[in-house]
Amino acid sequence: MKSNVLRRYVDILMYALFCFITGSGLLIGYRLAPCSRGGDHGQTLLGMSRHEWGEWHLWAAYAVITLLIVHLILNFKFIINVVVSKNCLLLGIISALGFAIVAWFLFAPLHKAPGGRKCGDGTYPSAEQSACSSACSGCPSTAKGSCPNARQ
Question: Helix 88-107 crosses helix 76-85 at what angle (to 10 degrees)?
Answer without folding.
Answer: 120
